[in-house]
Amino acid sequence: MAHPNEDLLRRGYEAFAAGDLETVMGVFSDDIIWHVGGLSQLSGDYLGHEAVTAFFGRLIEVSGGTFSLELHDILANDVHGTVLVTARGQNDNGTLDEREVHIWHVANGKATEFWAFAEDQARVDAFFG
């Protein structure tokens, strides 16, 4: 039997893959903090549903609608989740095929904070420009 926070995160990733942002936002606390490292135009901190939704819009725009995540595994406990993924996409800057680790804080049945760590951040930065 999976931990409830594993189920929560899995529901979010499945909804993202299906383009169901309403369900994705339902997984997040209202005051979610979303950290994007690196030096690309998408790098920075995004606070709350509105800012994260805008970030997703830019992510899809910059990738020409090709961005996707292949989910490999989710590990979760009462306060944290770790998700192993491969991020993929194509745009004028080339092809993205990057292994990443996503770290989550979870409280009261909602994701409250997110960080993404890429295997090669320079490749991610080059892709997103």
User: Biggest sheet, strands in spatial order?
Assistant: 2-1-6-5-4-3
Strand residue content: 35-45%
User: What is the domain total for the residues?
Assistant: 1
Please give the radius of gyration in angstroms: 14 Å
Q: List unreliable stretches of 5+ residues.
A: none
CATH architecture: Roll
State the CATH class: Alpha Beta
Number of helices: 4
Pick out its properties.
Nuclear Transport Factor 2, Chain: A; globular; 6 strands; 34% helix; six-stranded mixed sheet; alpha+beta
Report on the structure:
- This protein is an alpha+beta fold and 129 residues long.
- It has a single domain, classed as Nuclear Transport Factor 2, Chain: A, CATH 3.10.450.
- 34% of the residues lie in helices and 44% in strands.
- It is built from four helices and six strands.
- A six-stranded mixed β-sheet has the order 2-1-6-5-4-3.
- Helix 1 packs antiparallel against helix 2.
Write a concise synopsis of the structure shown.
With 129 residues, the protein is of the alpha+beta class. The protein has four helices and six strands. It has a single domain (4-128), classed as Nuclear Transport Factor 2, Chain: A (Roll), CATH 3.10.450.
